[in-house]
C-alpha cells in the first residue's frame, strides 16, 4: 500500500477559506524537517494548489515510476550550516540535521500554472483517491495533508480512503494521528471554523490542536506587533471544544518576502520574539542562490513559534502511540 511507509498522517483543516492553511502547512513541514523528521506534504486543494508556490518549486513536474507517481523533492536530509543572523539563538535543528522534505500537488500536473480546475465532484473525488493510492512516498515520519476549506467532496473522499487504508493491520498503529485546525481571531472566522471542529467530532478525527493565524502584524520597520484582527478568539474556541490550543501566529512581512522573493528575513534592531533578539544587519541577507528555503527560514521570526508548535504535536502524537 502507498501509505505503508508513513508513520503519522496529520490533516490541516479549516472551515473558512483565506485563513492561511497552506502557509501553516508549509511552516509546520519546515519545522518538522528542522527537528530532524522526514516529511511529506500532500496538497489536495485541487482548485487552488498553492503548495508548489510556497516551497518555490512551481516549475517542477511529477515523474512516473512503476506503480505510481514520485513526489517532488524540496530538499534531501542533510546537515545545515550554523545560522547567520540569529545572534546566538538556537538553530532549531536536531543535532544540526534536517529531515528530507517532498511534496505532491495537482499544481505539478497541470500543463500551465494559471489553468483553472473546473471539475465536478466525482472527478475531484477520483483525484483525491489517486493521490492517496498512486503516490510512492519515501519512508516518512510525518505526512501533512493540506485541504481546501469547508467540508466538501474532497474531505469526505479523503477520510473514506484514509480510514480504509489505515485500518489494515499492516499499517503502523494510530497512523492517522489527527488534525490541526486553523482559524483567524475574528468572530466570523471562528463561527465557520467551529463547523470544522464539529465535522471532526462527527467523523471521529482527533483534533491535535488549534492554531490562531494572523494574530497580529509584525511591523517591518520597528519591533512592534499590532493586533490588526484582534487576538484570542482561537484560544477561546479551543477551550470551548476542549481541544489543545497550539499557539498564535502573527503576520510577518519578512516571511512573505522569503516566499515571494527568496530573500533571507531581516529585522530591525530591538526585534525580540519569545524573549530572543532576532534583529539582523541588512548586509547579512545577501545569501547564495543555492541556499535552501529551510535554512533561510531559520532566521524568520515565526520559526521559533512553529518550533514550539511542532514540539507539542510530536509529544502529543508520541504519547498516544505508546
TrEMBL record:
<dbReference type="InterPro" id="IPR028600">
    <property type="entry name" value="NUBP2/Cfd1_eukaryotes"/>
</dbReference>
<dbReference type="InterPro" id="IPR000808">
    <property type="entry name" value="Mrp-like_CS"/>
</dbReference>
<feature type="binding site">
    <location>
        <position position="222"/>
    </location>
    <ligand>
        <name>[4Fe-4S] cluster</name>
    </ligand>
</feature>
<dbReference type="GO" id="GO:0005524">
    <property type="term" value="F:ATP binding"/>
</dbReference>
<dbReference type="GO" id="GO:0016787">
    <property type="term" value="F:hydrolase activity"/>
</dbReference>
<dbReference type="GO" id="GO:0051539">
    <property type="term" value="F:4 iron, 4 sulfur cluster binding"/>
</dbReference>
<keyword id="KW-0963">Cytoplasm</keyword>
<comment type="function">
    <text>Component of the cytosolic iron-sulfur (Fe/S) protein assembly (CIA) machinery. Required for maturation of extramitochondrial Fe-S proteins. The NBP35-CFD1 heterotetramer forms a Fe-S scaffold complex, mediating the de novo assembly of an Fe-S cluster and its transfer to target apoproteins.</text>
</comment>
<dbReference type="GO" id="GO:0016226">
    <property type="term" value="P:iron-sulfur cluster assembly"/>
</dbReference>
<keyword id="KW-0411">Iron-sulfur</keyword>
<keyword id="KW-0408">Iron</keyword>
<dbReference type="GO" id="GO:0140663">
    <property type="term" value="F:ATP-dependent FeS chaperone activity"/>
</dbReference>
<keyword id="KW-0547">Nucleotide-binding</keyword>
<protein>
    <submittedName>
        <fullName>P-loop containing nucleoside triphosphate hydrolase protein</fullName>
    </submittedName>
</protein>
<dbReference type="InterPro" id="IPR027417">
    <property type="entry name" value="P-loop_NTPase"/>
</dbReference>
<keyword id="KW-0067">ATP-binding</keyword>
<keyword id="KW-0004">4Fe-4S</keyword>
<keyword id="KW-0479">Metal-binding</keyword>
<dbReference type="GO" id="GO:0046872">
    <property type="term" value="F:metal ion binding"/>
</dbReference>
<comment type="similarity">
    <text>Belongs to the Mrp/NBP35 ATP-binding proteins family. NUBP2/CFD1 subfamily.</text>
</comment>
<dbReference type="Pfam" id="PF10609">
    <property type="entry name" value="ParA"/>
</dbReference>
<dbReference type="GO" id="GO:0005829">
    <property type="term" value="C:cytosol"/>
</dbReference>
<feature type="binding site">
    <location>
        <begin position="15"/>
        <end position="22"/>
    </location>
    <ligand>
        <name>ATP</name>
    </ligand>
</feature>
<keyword id="KW-0378">Hydrolase</keyword>
<dbReference type="InterPro" id="IPR019591">
    <property type="entry name" value="Mrp/NBP35_ATP-bd"/>
</dbReference>
<dbReference type="InterPro" id="IPR033756">
    <property type="entry name" value="YlxH/NBP35"/>
</dbReference>
<feature type="binding site">
    <location>
        <position position="219"/>
    </location>
    <ligand>
        <name>[4Fe-4S] cluster</name>
    </ligand>
</feature>
Amino acid at each position: 500500500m502507498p501509505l505503508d511507509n508513513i508513520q503519522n498522517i496529520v490533516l490541516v483543516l479549516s472551515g473558512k477559506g483565506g485563513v492561511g492553511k497552506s502557509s501553516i502547512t508549509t511552516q509546520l513541514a519546515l519545522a518538522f524537517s528542522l527537528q530532524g523528521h522526514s516529511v511529506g506534504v500532500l496538497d489536495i486543494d485541487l482548485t487552488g494548489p498553492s503548495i508548489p508556490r510556497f516551497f518555490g518549486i512551481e516549475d517542477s513536474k511529477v515523474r512516473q515510476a512503476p506503480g505510481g507517481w514520485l513526489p517532488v523533492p524540496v530538499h534531501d536530509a542533510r546537515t545545515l550550516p550554523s545560522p547567520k543572523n540569529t545572534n546566538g539563538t538556537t538553530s532549531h535543528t536536531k543535532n544540526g540535521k534536517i529531515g528530507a522534505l517532498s511534496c505532491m500537488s495537482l499544481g505539478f500536473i497541470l500543463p500551465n500554472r494559471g489553468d483553472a480546475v473546473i471539475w465536478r465532484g466525482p472527478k475531484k473525488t477520483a483525484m483525491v483517491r489517486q493521490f492517496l493510492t498512486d503516490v510512492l512516498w519515501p519512508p516518512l515520519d510525518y505526512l501533512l495533508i493540506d485541504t481546501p476549506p469547508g467540508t466538501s467532496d474532497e474531505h469526505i473522499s479523503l477520510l473514506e480512503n484514509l480510514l480504509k487504508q489505515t485500518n489494515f493491520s499492516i499499517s503502523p498503529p494510530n497512523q492517522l494521528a489527527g488534525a490541526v485546525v486553523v482559524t483567524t481571531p475574528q468572530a466570523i472566522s471562528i463561527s465557520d471554523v467551529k463547523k470544522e471542529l464539529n465535522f471532526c467530532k462527527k467523523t471521529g478525527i482527533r483534533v491535535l490542536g488549534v492554531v490562531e493565524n494572523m494574530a497580529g502584524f509584525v511591523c517591518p520597520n520597528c519591533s512592534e506587533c499590532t493586533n490588526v484582527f484582534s487576538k484570542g478568539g482561537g484560544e477561546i474556541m479551543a477551550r470551548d471544544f476542549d481541544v489543545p490550543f497550539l499557539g498564535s501566529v502573527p503576520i510577518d512581512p519578512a516571511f512573505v518576502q522569503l516566499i515571494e522573493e527568496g530573500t533571507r528575513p531581516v529585522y530591525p534592531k530591538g526585534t525580540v520574539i519569545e524573549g530572543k533578539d532576532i534583529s539582523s544587519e541588512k548586509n547579512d541577507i545577501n545569501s547564495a542562490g543555492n541556499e535552501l528555503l529551510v535554512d533561510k527560514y531559520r532566521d524568520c521570526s515565526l520559526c521559533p513559534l512553529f518550533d514550539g508548535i511542532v514540539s507539542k504535536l510530536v509529544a502529543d502524537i508520541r504519547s498516544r502511540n505508546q
